[in-house]
Amino acid sequence: MSTIPNFIEIPVNPEIAQKEFEVYSKPSTLTDKPFHYCPGCGHSTVHKLLMEVVEEMGIQGDIVGVAPVGCSVFAYDYLDIDMQQAAHGRALAVATGIRRMLPDKLVFTYQGDGDLAAIGTAETLHAANRGENILTIFINNAVYGMTSGQMAPTTLEKMVTTTSPFGRDVSTQGYPLKISELLAMLPGVTYVTRQSVHTTANVRKTKKALRKAIELQQEGKGFCLVEVVSNCPSNWKMTPLQSQQFIQEKMIPFYPLGDIKTPEGK
Amino acid sequence: MGEIKLMKGNEALSEALIRAGCDGYFGYPITPQSEVIEYLSREANARTGMVVLQAESEVASINMVYGAAGTGRRVCTTSSSPGISLMQEGISYIASAELPCLVVNIVRGGPGLGTIQPSQADYFQATKGGGHGDYHMIVLAPYNVQEMVDHVKLGFELGEKYRTPVMILGDGALGQMMEKVELFEQMPRKTEFPDWATTGKKEGIHRSIITSLFIQPEVMEQVNLRLQAKYREIEKNEVLYQTINCEDADYIFTGFGLGSRIAMKAMEMAREKGHKVGLIRPITVYPFPYDIYKEFAGKVKGILDIEMNAGQMVEDVRLAVEGKTQVEFYGRMGGMIAGPDEVYEYFEEKFLGGK
Predict the structure, then answer these.
(1) Which architecture does CATH list for B3-185+211-237?
(2) Among A178, A247, B12, B343, which residue's Cβ finds the most Cβ atoms within 10 Å?
(3) What residue ranges define each of the domains in chain A, with the CATH number in brackets?
(4) How far apart (Å, rounded) are the C-alpha atoms in residues A145 and A68?
(5) pLDDT per residue as tens digits for the range A198-214
(6) What is the tens place of the pLDDT at every residue in B201-238?
(7) Which residues pair with residue B242 across a beta bridge?
């Protein structure tokens, strides 16, 4: 009987493993548990970025997160902060309950497109419209990842999924939903931005957006939404690299990157 | 002696929520209990700082309760039958994540949109689980406005003792009727919170995670075993009921909530006519007081159960007496309330061979 180790043991050369040679490290605000996400998936990158910001801002004890139903349902296994896991689509109702009880804390939800823009649309829209002081991190990969590749509200026109096997036919299956643009119209919403993590430059921009959103939360400026256009190599049936190209060539033309609404007046 | 007032059931319950130091209320209007959110919106925040939020739906309300309860605060939602049906998923999550909270159902006639008139047709839903999975709520069944008040305090205490959701199972009549009520003194809101609460990771303390997801079956089985052990403890310790005139009884009338009041009046009519009738009134319908029925099984000549439904609690009564005593049921449905005279007539017909 063979056993599969949780960690692959890499022999460490003590002469090299010294602080002065360190060029990269995992933020202390992530647990040591290896990510379960598929190779190339954007979730791992966004988790790390968020926790880097939490570490840099020194807010590990001041922030409470809400995990959704979807691939990131186990987000609390990795994000080393107090967290609640919500029913499918209800993250923003749960977050509202938390934030109203803890007005001095920072509260965020981490949700996918199915959770936020299909089953949870009502909770999303109304939490935003109440101007709840909550940050929503919205991972848009145009597909239901965890249930293995069904059509999502954000699935692109003609895109093939297991429930749109001939490509999404907008005449019978509706149009891809730009939920961020929709929410940006609401007066309770302060900051809406769409970013991606498919290139190094975009990773840096996403981190900046997360930091800005958390700073706005600290100031109590109302609802903030950071959408991250992401990938799903497993269900898109692509290699990680092909999926990054798909983001660039197909996703971004429909979901253009950049700020949609800012407190400065965009 | 506490302050005495003449109050409508829904308003008395609302006043009790404020006085019990409730931290947060999340609700959605529905007849016949909309007075609760109206009363709280008017009164609560200015008096205790309690948060009162009108949600966009009952689905949102119960999930706000989940989030708020996860911070260790005293929280509540109220609704009526169709709204409570919408909450079932959330209640299942709350039971699994072991969060204390109070859910009030001012029951109206169903099924479907039904009627806004009083009913007791949600007994099965309330006592047998309601949502998915093996779980229970503690279910308190007030029979007058006084108990609408007292059960708020008791409900919060039991919920926090066992980390479990508690339901007050009232009905539209209890919500709408006015009665004299003695109010308990204002209690302070909590300032200390349990260490399982998600209030921000504390230095040197294990962080708090509220979840009902345990994907490995070996772990999920352990969660279930723990829940079941808790329910056995509740069944052992928290059964409440009232008996009247049972000492010399040949027959027993029974019912919960408003049904028990009809039964009481019918019992008085029977006593006036010389029939020795007693009454058992479950106050907790989960845990159900099986033992008190067992005590009279085989000893009394018959039990008549009166409910405002098609016969729901009667199944528990029959389970308790194990066929040793004839159990009959009389009920009206769809928002109709039985009169004591028709109950008495039914008693004569079933047990005394007619007039």
Answers:
(1) 3-Layer(aba) Sandwich (3.40)
(2) B12
(3) 35-261 (3.40.50.970)
(4) 13
(5) 999 999 999 999 999 99
(6) 987 778 999 999 999 999 999 999 999 999 999 999 99
(7) B281
